[in-house]
Amino acid sequence: MWNRIKRLFRAIFGGIIDKAEDPELVLNQVIRDMRDKVPQMNENVARVMSTEKLLEKEVALLEREIQANDAKVKAAIKQGRDDIAKTYIAQMQEKRTALERSREQLEQARKASQQAIRFRDNYMLQMKKKSAEAMQLINASRQAKLQEQLAQTMASFQIGDEASTFDEMREKINRRAATAEAKMELATSGIDTQIQEIEREAFNIEVDETLMAYKRQMGLVNEQSLSTGSLGSETATSEKTLGPSERSKVLE
């Protein structure tokens, strides 16, 4: 019974976690965790290398002290002080023993430093590879998310929510345009519009007559051309006003 309950809870919460788990967020967190380890690794490498540097200084110091004791032994022997020479020899032997031990420790420290640096470099290389792979996966996740949104949008068009809205708006606009055209037709075919056209034509005739009057005053138009022009204009005007049958009678 308890196992069934545990299985049920795991199924429920596992499904919730799986739905709430965003691959992009998880991968970004993994990259941050890997980068956060780099300072600690550099600190460890620096600590190992500092031990190596201390041992190098200790070896150099012991080598100088041994050389100094060797010179002191020789000086004591020259002065006939064998007792002092023995003391320096004993110190020199102790320092040689310490020097051998320090050299062994230095060799181990150098190996440890090389291993630490190599491990750090390998980690950095792996981190760069994993980061590049994670960025590719993140881009793939974003592309998949965009495709999902596009698919949902296309599905909504197929379902008909937005499509019906577009059809409704198209019908409303077409109806409004037809109404506007009808109103324009009525406005241009009314008696007021015809009166306005007649008044505009009369105004143009008045302007033409005024222009001819100015030309007569300036002597630019003689009476013969004026009469011919007026006759032609009257004929043209009569042709405009008369029908085809009446026009033929006038010409006869």
Structure description:
- With 252 residues, the protein is mainly alpha-helical.
- Helices cover 94% and strands 0% of the residues.
- It contains 7 helices and no strands.
- The protein has helices spanning 2-20, 23-78, 82-159, 161-189, 191-217, 223-241, 244-251.
- Helix 2 runs antiparallel to helix 3 (82-159).
- The N and C termini lie far apart (122 Å).
- The model is unreliable at 234-244 and 246-252 (pLDDT under 50).
Report the strand count. 0
Identify the CATH class of the domain at 2-147: Mainly Alpha
What is the structural class? Answer: mainly alpha
Low-confidence stretches: 234-244, 246-252
> Total number of helical segments?
7
Please report which band the strand proportion falls in: under 5%, 5-15%, 15-25%, 25-35%, 35-45% or over 45%: under 5%
- N-to-C SSE string, H for helix and E for strand: HHHHHHH
What is the CATH topology classification name of the domain at 2-147?
A: Helix Hairpins
Largest sheet report: none
